């Protein structure tokens, strides 16, 4: 469809940032470093916060926090020597009718300060107020002279970019000062914001009292003096809300459109035959939990409907997602179709293969494993069996998604630990069949409001219950010498017949120094700490067969202590293991730590997670470790993670195939997201999926924002 000219952005917005007044060859690379390429980018580079410089504040009202602007008369001035480190400082006290405050300089030229601030002089001061016990001080303030009898406001108005208004405080980069930023962004916004056009339906804008984008941008950069300061501070002022709503509206519009599309596809309509599912439930050593059963019910309904299933199965580590996957697989197999199970690591694929193969054999069915590392001839055999339909279920890593893997008839695609895969891979699997049903599983809970609104075209099932008999896992943080306590506990548990993991971080399997550290540590443990135990070592650089052997020996209990890199992070299930010790725990993210901890506490015995941070770690890392000690609830951990990391990083919008947000904050703006979703879904329906003439500008804007991602979003 040709683009209508009036839905194109104004050419002024597409000009490069280098064409902006005041941006020379020196400034340009700095702005580029902020990720700004065009004028439009710069318009969406919004202030981090604001400073109230509308009026001079009485000295008694000055508070620590942001910059303050105030006037005062010099009461005393002079050099003194600090008692602590015997350094010289220059000390000035100023006063107004309301009170006094101290100004301090630690680096200065004395004659200059003496001349600038003689006793009795009237000045305007700008600086950050700090508390030291009961006293307030301003260090190295900016000083503006105030001639006798002059109106201080007039002095300020000489510099309207920096005084007499609510000032934007921009995110900066090295070599770009706040003053320079304001000097660039003032004319930039004043001249160009007007070209940004709202493409949201007018009716929605008006009904919800949203500002047009041009006004909202102007107000966000340079709020007028009546703006509600508190709302500004919290990022919930109406200008910002309008920008956020605009982003969310187009996000949800895309999702709504996709959802409508998904429902139009013809899928496979399975029938419940109970031929394998019933016998399986009879031979299982346990009963499915209520939550597993409920979720399975939801899956069955999807599978039996005409539309292809797109379901996200969410359940905390150890909640028993694999069993649900197995039962779903049997339904597909009963209907004479094949099932593909894809896992992110070879170790997990191998484990799943054992589980599925074990049960399928009992039922007279056939499973196969496909790994990238298999020999060419073994691979050829497996490919052949997949193509002819000889195997009912295939388990593997990314290898399953490769070209050349052709199914006889793929009915159900299952992706485990879906957050470890990109959108592309999910789409690849789906296209191995003709609209097969898709079940994607994850232990990373996305806060509920977000999962519904973000994965708008996915249905979500939640297993919110663990199998019975699980005991809480005790999590402890041990620093420095306390490490010996961790070793003692491991020794005790292994002596009592149980098993333990010690995990080392290895961000990239190629990082040699990390790998060496892990291998050296294993040697040290073998020789010096636990010579009496069988210790196995596992890392991603080992050959598949070696890895299998070690895992198998661990599973059988022959290896008592497994020293490993993060290759065992997800999915591994050895119920007799009761201790998870994590070295350099500060280097792991929260969801990773939660996954690692999920490797224990899978049996009837009490389990422990021992976190050993590096000698020095950041404040954020400290927070993460504390969250782990405080709670086992995956949902709360995800929320804390979202809070500490910020939403973009947490959700990886890129990876989910969603457009990036320039303004919106998924955590803070969740309510707007819901409202935007409602509006967007209604609009899609009202316009017959954007087919009416008046919805064309909206449609064009949607295409522009989503780029090629519309087709790939969610699971493609
Ligand atoms: P996850 O959801 O983390 O993938 P798994 O599927 O690996 O969890 O299951 C964890 C453990 O719980 C496995 O050992 C599995 O056999 C066991 N399990 C699953 N469902 C039940 C159940 N209903 N009752 C008892 N144990 C169960
Ligand atoms: Mg699992």
TrEMBL record:
Entry keyword set: ATP-binding, DNA damage, DNA recombination, DNA repair, DNA-binding, Helicase, Hydrolase, Isomerase, Nucleotide-binding
Protein name: ATP-dependent DNA helicase RecG
Transmembrane segments: none
Enzyme class: isomerase
InterPro entries, per database record: ATP-dep_DNA_helicase_RecG, DEAD/DEAH_box_helicase_dom, Helicase_ATP-bd, Helicase_C-like, NA-bd_OB-fold, P-loop_NTPase, RecG/Mfd, RecG_dom3_C
Alphabetical list of CDD domains matching this protein: DEXHc_RecG (cd17992), RecG_wedge_OBF (cd04488), SF2_C_RecG (cd18811)
Family assignment from sequence similarity: Belongs to the helicase family. RecG subfamily.
Catalytic activity: ATP + H2O = ADP + phosphate + H(+); Couples ATP hydrolysis with the unwinding of duplex DNA by translocating in the 3'-5' direction
Biological function: Plays a critical role in recombination and DNA repair. Helps process Holliday junction intermediates to mature products by catalyzing branch migration. Has replication fork regression activity, unwinds stalled or blocked replication forks to make a HJ that can be resolved. Has a DNA unwinding activity characteristic of a DNA helicase with 3'-5' polarity.
GO BP terms: DNA recombination; DNA repair
E.C. designation(s): 5.6.2.4
Molecular function in Gene Ontology: 3'-5' DNA helicase activity; ATP binding; ATP hydrolysis activity; DNA binding
Every Helicase ATP-binding domain range: 302-463
Pfam families in UniProt: DEAD, Helicase_C, RecG_dom3_C, RecG_wedge
Extent of the signal sequence: none
Helicase C-terminal domain residues: 482-648
